[in-house]
Amino acid sequence: MSSFTATMVIPFYFMSHADHGKAPMSWQFAASAAAGMFAFVLFLCSYMGVQRVEIDTVHGSIKFANLYSHQRWREFKASEVISIRRLCGYHNDGLLMELAPSRGRSWNDANFFNTDTIGDSNSALILALVGQVTAIKPNMKVDGLLPQYQGPLPRGS
After folding, report:
1. From the first residue on, what is the mean pLDDT of each consecutive set of 10 residues in the chain (157 residues)?
2. Rounded distance, CA 89 to CA 125, Å?
3. For residues 136 and 121, what is the distance between their CA atoms, to the nearest angstrom?
4. For residues 17 and 24, what is the distance between their CA atoms, to the nearest angstrom?
5. CA 47 to chain centre
6. Which residue(s) pair with 74 in the sheet?
7. For the chain, domain boundaries
8. Residues paired with 84 in a beta bridge
9. Which distant-in-sequence residues (6+ apart) come within 8 Å of 112 by Cβ?
10. Which fold has domain 53-143?
């Protein structure tokens, strides 16, 4: 018997041999299963929303871990950035940095979430990231930086 057939036969066996006068599952079990699924969904949503970013102004590096990196730390030098694009949209509000190919690195872009979720504005994180790159590459253009922000970009801290 193949595994596919076994997985189809076992639930059918339990359904057909259940007492017809009783419910096949108690309400306590159903309630605890629903609570467990709700807790798992809450955990998954909180996991997806976590973003950790470290900007090293001394060495010119950016280190991050977020949903796009599967919560693994990734690090790159600000001098490796070849383009920056501000993403504005319903599902993708953030910053995309395209990096020059590097030996030993299988990824060539870095995505960051906008941490300012109220209104259409650039968060302090986005401005700090752009400021870190433009401090090393002053001629770097940022596509789509929102026009509400006026003034020079911060140059590290």
Report:
1. 44 51 70 88 78 91 89 93 83 84 90 73 82 88 67 48
2. 18
3. 24
4. 10
5. 9
6. 64
7. 3-48, 53-143
8. 97, 142
9. 51, 53, 64, 66, 94, 95, 96, 97, 125, 126, 129
10. PH-domain like (2.30.29)
